[in-house]
Structures are given as C-alpha cells and as structure tokens.
C-alpha cells in the first residue's frame, strides 16, 4: 500500500478507511487498553497520533518499540477527540523497521541544548526545532530561485575550484594532489596553485556580460580561524550579477530579495516559524512582519560613522573613519538606531576589494552592505569597476598581478559595460528568519575551525 505523508494525512478533507504512514516514534504511552504512539516523518511540525489496541496483531507487532523506532502504521484515519489535531490513526497493522534502544538513544522527551545537539548533528533533525529549521531552509532556498526566475535571471553554475583570489583576504583552502610537504605547483594536478572558492563572483560577472542577468546559488569556503557564531568554513552564497546597471538597482534588488524570502517563509512555514517565535526568539514573527512593512534605511558610510561616533554606546572596537564596520557596529545601527534593516553605501576604497567601482571622489567605492537586526551584514555588494585602466591600477594597488586576471580584464577590453552584483550569505538570512544566534545551527552539518564531523 502506498504511504501517505503525515502532512497530507493531517490536512485530509475526509476520514479514510485505510492509510499507511511511516515515521519515527516521538513518544509512546501505554495505558490499560491501548498504546498511544506519536509519529513524525519530518514532513511537518505536528505529529500524528496512532492508537494501538491491546490484544491485537498490531500491538504484537509493535512489541517493545520505543521512542526513536522507525515504524509503518496502517489503519483508519478517523476524527480525533483531542483538541490538538483533527485526525488520528487507529492501527490495524504495524511494521517495525528499526528499533532504538531506549538506554542509548540520545533524543528523549526532554529539552536538549543546541550545543548538545551539535554533537549529534546526524540525529538532531528528528527534533521539532531542527526539523522545523531545515524545512524553513528548504522553503527559503525555493524562494530564492522563484525570486530570480520571476525577474528573468538565468541560473549559472560557477566553479568550486579556482586559481583566483576574489576577496583578497587570502583565507582560502588549498587543494592539491601533491604528497605531503611537496610545494611545487608545477607538479600539481592543475600545474598551478588551486583553492576552494570563496565566491563565484568573478565568473558570474563574465557570464552576466553575455547573458545580462545571472545568479548562482552555491557553496563557498573560507579558511577563517574565527570561532564566532557568524562564521563557518563552508557556507552557501546567493550571488546575482547584472549588466547595464548601477549600485542603486543593486541595492533595490538586495532589499527585494530579502523581503521576498521572508514573505514566502511567513506564508508557507507559519507553524514552523511560530515554534521559533515561542521558544527561541520572542517577537520573531512581529519583527519579520515589520521588515516587510517599510523600506530599508539608506545611509552613506560617512554618515554611519558619524552616527556611531555620536552615540553613547561603548564599543569594543572604537569607531574610526576608514575602518571596516564590525558586527557590534552593524547590529547597533540596525537594532537600536534604525530598529530596521539599513543599507550602508559608499565605503572607503582602502578597505574594499579591487573589483569595486571607484567613485568620482577617488576616496570611496560604489559598495553597499545590507545590515539587519540581530544578524548584522547579510548582503554585501557593489557596482563593479568597468574601466580597464582603473581596474588594472586597482589590481596593482592591492598587490595583485594583472596578468593573472587577464580574462577578467578582457571583459573590460571587449564590450565593457556598467554592471553590479552582490553576495547574500544564505545562512545569515536563515539566522534572521529563525532567530537562531549561531550559524552552526542553521547548517545541517556545519564545518568550522577544528570541526569536521559527520
């Protein structure tokens, strides 16, 4: 008999004589005349209750199956007398696929800390919280693709392996086939130094300069030793690139993308988000709806620094014009000053990468960051430098050899055009969506400094 997802059984229009559901037992209660099994298959937050009468073949088959056991339950879908759900299943046939020893199964019916659950990341998705989180993640990913599809962006796939350092930070993972200790790139697989990408931006630019509007949604890697709640060694980036545009349109696109993903999550994941509103971050739903209610604030970097300097807040990192804003500065602007997401633009050129377009003042670049309450920077982007001479000069200025970027410079030699784009940290958006405070908890299997489990 074909199985029915629990989400579909709970939303059925009418009772059914026979359904088959499969899932993992979340709870088991044995009373005088029957056993009550709460079953969940991950398709929704709500469990479905299964009643197994004593003395039946179904009870015999159930045996001693405890919390965590994988079951198939076949029976009648009937109205539930309880107020928690509309339907329940009266079992007439049970198959136990796999037992879970109650003495060693780590997920019992009690509160487990996020730190504890990180140590059993292979099992934590069976909890209400993490099942809900990863359904929200899935919906957010679908929303990203829908957003760009509606705006006629073309999905492109950029390389994971790269010979270019896009960001200039040098914090990249080396990929080699050479024996340990051998450092001659000429003998390596690619005959040159190869690394894991931190961004597909440069390649996306090349594709945008022939296809107009493209985006990539792919993993990125950074060998960053920062052991903070906002950094991971492997993460996902959404990176659109647009030809024939400027920084203003780039800012508008970033704001629209964030609002669209939030809106879709509120529509399609209301029950899951309510769990986070109740148990993780009180006021989450109110804050998310407020983000949709009005435009993001916009201020130049110089104005942001002036606001920070005139505040009464004592920052760990003192605010000085010309510095890159720290997370504490970003959050204060978004949480306390504006109480809303804010776009900061026109940063000093000295603190930004070579590819960002120099403004006419020669001191700043056409860059922008979107900062959000509780999270800080979620999107960073810029208008790209389309002038060959300026870009060549900027490469040298930042210590790069222009010959290594010959193909990138070709885009400025042959039909150059104004263009812009940004990168959105997908996990940081998920932190905003769920109120989770640690990036390790919005990634199914997080990779961080010193941690490569699962």
From TrEMBL:
Residues 134-444 form the Aminoacyl-transfer RNA synthetases class-II family profile domain. Its EC number is 6.1.1.22. One of its GO terms (molecular function) is nucleic acid binding. Keywords: Aminoacyl-tRNA synthetase, ATP-binding, Cytoplasm, Ligase, Nucleotide-binding, Protein biosynthesis. It catalyses: tRNA(Asn) + L-asparagine + ATP = L-asparaginyl-tRNA(Asn) + AMP + diphosphate + H(+). It is an enzyme of class 6 (ligase). It holds the Pfam family tRNA-synt_2. It is found in: Cytoplasm. It comes from the Bacteria. InterPro entries: Aa-tRNA-synt_II, aa-tRNA-synth_II, aa-tRNA-synth_II/BPL/LPL, Asn-tRNA-ligase, Asp/Asn-tRNA-synth_IIb, NA-bd_OB-fold, NA-bd_OB_tRNA. GO terms for cellular component: cytoplasm. This is Asparagine--tRNA ligase. It comes from Candidatus Desulfovibrio kirbyi. The gene is asnC.
């Amino acid at each position: 008999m074909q199985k029915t997802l629990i989400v579909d059984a709970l939303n059925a229009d009418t009772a059914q004589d026979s359904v088959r559901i499969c899932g993992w037992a979340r709870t088991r209660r044995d009373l005088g005349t029957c056993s009550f099994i709460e079953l969940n298959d991950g398709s929704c937050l709500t469990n479905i209750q299964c009643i197994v009468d004593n003395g039946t073949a179904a009870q015999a088959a159930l045996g001693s199956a405890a919390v965590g056991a994988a079951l198939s339950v076949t029976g009648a879908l009937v109205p539930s007398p309880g107020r928690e759900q509309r339907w329940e299943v009266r079992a007439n046939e049970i198959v136990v696929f796999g037992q879970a020893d109650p003495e060693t199964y780590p997920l019992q019916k009690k509160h487990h800390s996020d730190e504890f659950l990180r140590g059993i990341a292979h099992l934590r998705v069976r909890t209400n919280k993490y099942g809900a989180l990863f359904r929200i993640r899935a919906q957010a990913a679908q929303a990203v693709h829908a957003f760009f599809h509606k705006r006629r962006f073309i999905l492109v796939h950029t390389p994971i392996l790269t010979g270019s350092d896009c960001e200039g930070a040098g914090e990249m993972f080396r990929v080699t086939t050479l024996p340990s200790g051998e450092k001659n790139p000429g003998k390596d697989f690619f005959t040159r130094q190869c690394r894991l990408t931190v961004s597909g931006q440069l390649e996306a630019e090349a594709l945008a300069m022939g296809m107009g509007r493209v985006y990539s949604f792919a993993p990125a890697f950074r060998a960053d030793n920062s052991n903070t709640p906002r950094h991971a060694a492997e993460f996902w980036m959404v990176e659109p690139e647009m030809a024939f545009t400027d920084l203003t349109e780039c800012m508008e696109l970033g704001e629209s993308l964030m609002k669209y993903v939030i809106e879709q999550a509120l529509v399609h994941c209301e029950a899951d988000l309510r769990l986070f509103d109740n148990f993780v971050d009180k006021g989450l739903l109110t804050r998310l709806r407020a983000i949709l209610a009005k435009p993001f604030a916009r201020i130049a970097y110089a104005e942001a620094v002036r606001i920070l300097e005139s505040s009464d807040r004592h920052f760990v990192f003192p605010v000085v014009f010309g510095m890159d804003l720290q997370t504490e500065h970003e959050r204060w602007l978004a949480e306390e000053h504006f109480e809303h997401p804010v776009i900061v633009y026109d940063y000093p050129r000295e603190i930004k990468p070579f590819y960002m377009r120099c403004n006419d003042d020669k001191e700043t670049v056409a860059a922008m960051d979107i900062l959000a309450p509780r999270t800080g920077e979620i999107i960073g982007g810029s208008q790209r430098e389309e002038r060959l001479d300026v870009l060549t000069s900027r490469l040298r200025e930042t210590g790069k050899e222009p010959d290594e970027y010959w193909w990138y410079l070709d885009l400025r030699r042959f039909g150059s055009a104004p263009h812009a784009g940004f990168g959105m940290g997908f996990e940081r958006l998920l932190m905003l969506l769920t109120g989770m405070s640690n990036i390790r908890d919005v990634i199914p299997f997080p990779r961080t400094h010193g941690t490569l489990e699962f």
